[in-house]
Amino acid sequence: MNCNIFTSTLEENLRESKEIRETHAVLTMHRKGEKAAPDDTKTRQFIRETNMKYFRIEYETLLGDFAVFDLGSEDRNGTGAIILKVASLRKVYEEKGWDAVISIAAENIRYAQYIKSSAGSITDSLFSYEKIKDRLIIRPLNLKSNRTKLEGCVYRTFEDIALVLYAIVLDDSENGILNTIKVPYIVFEEWGIDFDELLKITMKNTSSYALPRLYTNIFDIERTPEPESAFMSKDFKTRRLKPDNTALVTTSRKTNGAIAMFYPGVKEKLAEMFDDSFYVAFTSIHEAMIHKKGSIDPASIKRNVTETNRIFGPEDTLSDSVFFFDRKSGSFAAVV
After folding, report:
1. Which of 51, 119, 251, 319 has the highest CB neighbour count under 10 A?
2. pTM for this structure?
3. How many other β-carbons are positioned within 10 Å of the β-carbon of residue 288?
4. Which residues pair with 142 in a beta bridge?
C-alpha cells in the first residue's frame, strides 16, 4: 500500500469509525505539498508550526500527511486540535492493524477534551498571581523549534534554550498524566511582579515539584534506590565521581528533567562531586549527560548530541550545543 492509498484509506476509516464519531471531533486531512492561499493566515500558521515541530524546517509547504481533529468551538470542548502524523499511524497499522490506529486516535481526542474541560478553572485564575503562583513551573524547550509557539508567552533564553513559564492544569501522578499551559505575556504584565523575582520563585517551585536526581549508572535508572540518586538531599552522603564516570542528571519525575541543571546549587554540587569543572550535553528535554573536564573531547560529545537529536527528533531535542561549567568562575555557557 503506497503512501497516497494509505492516507486515503486512513481518512475513510477514521470517518466511518463509531468510536471517533462519538467524540464529535471534526476531522481534516492535510496532505504533503499543501500550501495556504494568500489570505489564509490560519492554514499558513498551521503549516509553518507543523513543519517546525515534526521536521525542524521553517517552510511554507507542508512536508508530510497529517490527520487533524478539531476539538470543537468554545461553547463545547474549547478550541484546539489534535494533530496525528500519518507516517506514525502507518507504523501502528503495519504492526497492529486498523483497530489499534482507531484506538490511538480516539484516545488522543478524549484525553485532550478531558484536559480542556479541566482547564477552565485554571485559566480563570491565571490573572490572579496569588491564586496561581503555587502552580507555576519552568519547562525547558528548544528555542528554534518552538519560536512560533512561544510568541506572546513568558520565557527566558539561555543560548538555544528557552526556559518557559507554565501553569499546571492537571497533575495526575498516579496515572502519569501532567498537563500544563504556557503563561501568556499579558497575564504576566497583569501580575505586576519583577521577572527575575518571578523566575527565582518559580524555579524553586519546580525544584520542589520535580526533585533533582543523579544517576551514575545510566543503564540502571529504574532500579537505583532513591537515597542513592537524591544528590541534593541533606541526607545524601557526598561521594567523588570517577573522572571517566558519565553521569545523568534528571528529576524525580524524569519528564522535562533537563530543567534540573538550572536549579540553584545543582551545578556547584556536581563540580564538588567531580572535584573539577565539567561538560553538559542535553541529550533531550528530559535529561543531561555530565562529563568531567579532560575525560572526553567536547567535539566528541557534540557529535553524540547531534546524532541523538537526529534520531529522536525535534519534540525531544533541547539543544545542539555542548555546555561547560567552570567551577572556579561559576560560569555556564555553550562551548561547542
Report:
1. 319
2. 0.71
3. 25
4. 161
Q: Are 284 and 316 in contact (CB under 8 A)?
A: yes
Which among 181, 148, 154 is positioned nearest to 49, based on CA atoms?
A: 148
Instruction: Give the separation between CA 189 and CA 184, rounded to whole angstroms.
Output: 9
* Cell digits of residue 176: 502519569
What are all long-range contacts of 293-296, with beta carbons under 8 Å and residues at least 24 apart?
293/324, 294/243, 295/243, 295/244
* CA dist., res. 204 & res. 25, Å (int): 39
* 185/190 Cα distance (integer angstroms): 9
Sign (positive or negative) of CA dihedral 201, 205, 211, 214: negative
Reference 189, options 126, 119, 123; nearest CA is: 126
The model's pLDDT over 225-252, given as tens digits with 9 standing for 90+, comes to 888 999 999 889 888 998 888 999 999 9
| Residue 224 one-letter amino acid | T
H/E element, 179: strand 177-182
